[in-house]
Amino acid sequence: MVTMTEVARAAGVSVSTVSHVVNGTRLVATATRERVQHAMDMLGYQHQPTARSLSAGTNRTIGLAITVATNPYWVELIQGIDREATRAGLNLIIVDTRDDARHESVAVANLLAHRIEGLITAPADGWRELTLPMLRDHALPYVLVDRITPDLRVDQVGVENEAATIAIIDHLISLGHTRIGMLSGIPGLSTSTERVHGYHAAHQRAGLPVDPELILVGSSTTDGGRKATWELLQFDDRPTALFAANNSMAIGALAALSAAGVKVPADMALTAFDDFPWADLFSPGLTTVAQPSAAIGARAVQLLLRRMNDPDAPPQTVRLPAEIMHRQSCGCVSR
Amino acid sequence: MVTMTEVARAAGVSVSTVSHVVNGTRLVATATRERVQHAMDMLGYQHQPTARSLSAGTNRTIGLAITVATNPYWVELIQGIDREATRAGLNLIIVDTRDDARHESVAVANLLAHRIEGLITAPADGWRELTLPMLRDHALPYVLVDRITPDLRVDQVGVENEAATIAIIDHLISLGHTRIGMLSGIPGLSTSTERVHGYHAAHQRAGLPVDPELILVGSSTTDGGRKATWELLQFDDRPTALFAANNSMAIGALAALSAAGVKVPADMALTAFDDFPWADLFSPGLTTVAQPSAAIGARAVQLLLRRMNDPDAPPQTVRLPAEIMHRQSCGCVSR
DNA sequence: CTGCTTTGCGCAAAGACTTGCGCAAAGCAC
DNA sequence: GTGCTTTGCGCAAGTCTTTGCGCAAAGCAG
């Protein structure tokens, strides 16, 4: 492996000078700089940030701890983070948390061992007990994405769950629906509770009573969505519209409805949180709430950068607006 | 940050002893070892593999360079690699290649900077020119997954594309189909060509002629699949069955067929490569070729381990068998 | 008790890089 | 020409860990 020492010898300068041209940390005469550059090219010098991090304690690398899941929302989030990190000159390395607090903590320990200087994470349930203490021990700057913890003073980015839910429920109400079923996500996650809040708020605003029986837990899975939908279909006083709090449950709902021979949107209107690329390939096309995943990711990187530069900055919670993608399943017959 | 020096002082031993108890590299008297352990616990010592890699040149970390995509196949592959790496005591860090050779090379350079000791990658087109030379320069052990390059003597793992395709086409033929349309993937990738080979081989074996017009490029995307299907529907002598070479194209096909009012499987049988969780939620359920993604990932890790231990071992190409998931879309009315 | 082996541990160099300090040369005003 | 400021660069210490070498103590056979 070719080291700075060799480059220095080849260029006839000291290693400190080589270091300074590599990092641009102090002025180096143009002629000297070019000699060094040339020597590096000749020898094929490869910088070793890992050694730098030893002495300088910095390597421009941030970590992302997230669950690697098939959900397009996560994938776009990761892509958004990756792109923004690249733009900011940061290296990004990713580890899988498996959405499990125990595994999350070992994954983060792994990142820590690689001397990351900041962390972005979509915390699993149990994160506060297992992972957070490690981050504090290391005084590592971090920001939370997707899942917001309101009672914690930390930097975090998510979508406007409540407002978006209100908007879509509102839409259903304006179409004349008064009994709207809801399939809610994994209990305990902030995203789940916020969406339920939105459901209530929309009803209240419209002066409509909420029938608590219409809110079923679908646990964010396809199977959970299917079962919950099936239950709703058993009611004497069936809902006429359905809102699934994420895309997997929506797919489950779709399956249950078609199995039961319920026509969408004629017999039942259907809407969902989370857009996905083939949402309009179903017939009818699914009306969804599209999260700005990439923007959320980018914003997370920016927050992290800010925190890395100023550890004492006041913590910030950012909410990005979502967009309703009108298709056919809601029955409003647009396009 | 607490270093070995501090632990050593606290335990009243030298740093070398601390290092040896941490790594188990030489015999340390039980009493001493316990003192050191205790000191580490008290001080909350965190090992710094990055510093080790400086002097010892090893840190037990491997990298994964892969495209972070919504395709469930990739996701399961990543999960398989992650689990097997954990089992083997290896740390895994992931970077996104965006399935683009240029970006892939910077991502790999990033990994290299973190002193990984091995790499698993699903190479993008152009990999041989941009990334491979870097790997060779660094003498880095690596293994390829998913995409097999037959003319390169390297370690690689993939699925039996040809055999699996033969099996599924055979199934269609046995159901009486003689004109079978094929939607093929991104041209140039080994997976694509192998599946086309399988298509031909199955026909040959059955003594059936191949009509080249029936093989259309769908480029592995939903949209490509839809367009190609639409074209096939225009033929006077329409195919009676369809085989999509990946899941995205299958979804596109499904969309095109339903838009055209073609009933599956009555008017057109449909099968596809790549299973996905909600394949049986469509009606009819999609008959697919399921790849053992997790097993492929695990195997890749094993191959890498072997190569890391023995750089001169003969390169190995591993093919894992796929499984046909019979559902309704093929028209064979199983279950 | 002597001399040899084994067991247990410390010393110090090495590994690749950064950076505070300080020196020398050049530039400049007077 | 003199004295002061810039500009440009080298020296060497420091970062955390590993490991070859070698020393001391303990164990043991004779």
UniProtKB/TrEMBL annotation, chains A, B:
<keyword id="KW-0238">DNA-binding</keyword>
<keyword id="KW-0678">Repressor</keyword>
<dbReference type="InterPro" id="IPR010982">
    <property type="entry name" value="Lambda_DNA-bd_dom_sf"/>
</dbReference>
<dbReference type="Pfam" id="PF13377">
    <property type="entry name" value="Peripla_BP_3"/>
</dbReference>
<feature type="domain" description="HTH lacI-type">
    <location>
        <begin position="2"/>
        <end position="56"/>
    </location>
</feature>
<dbReference type="GO" id="GO:0000976">
    <property type="term" value="F:transcription cis-regulatory region binding"/>
</dbReference>
<dbReference type="Pfam" id="PF00356">
    <property type="entry name" value="LacI"/>
</dbReference>
<keyword id="KW-0805">Transcription regulation</keyword>
<dbReference type="InterPro" id="IPR046335">
    <property type="entry name" value="LacI/GalR-like_sensor"/>
</dbReference>
<keyword id="KW-0804">Transcription</keyword>
<protein>
    <submittedName>
        <fullName>LacI family transcriptional regulator</fullName>
    </submittedName>
</protein>
<dbReference type="GO" id="GO:0003700">
    <property type="term" value="F:DNA-binding transcription factor activity"/>
</dbReference>
<dbReference type="InterPro" id="IPR000843">
    <property type="entry name" value="HTH_LacI"/>
</dbReference>
<dbReference type="InterPro" id="IPR028082">
    <property type="entry name" value="Peripla_BP_I"/>
</dbReference>
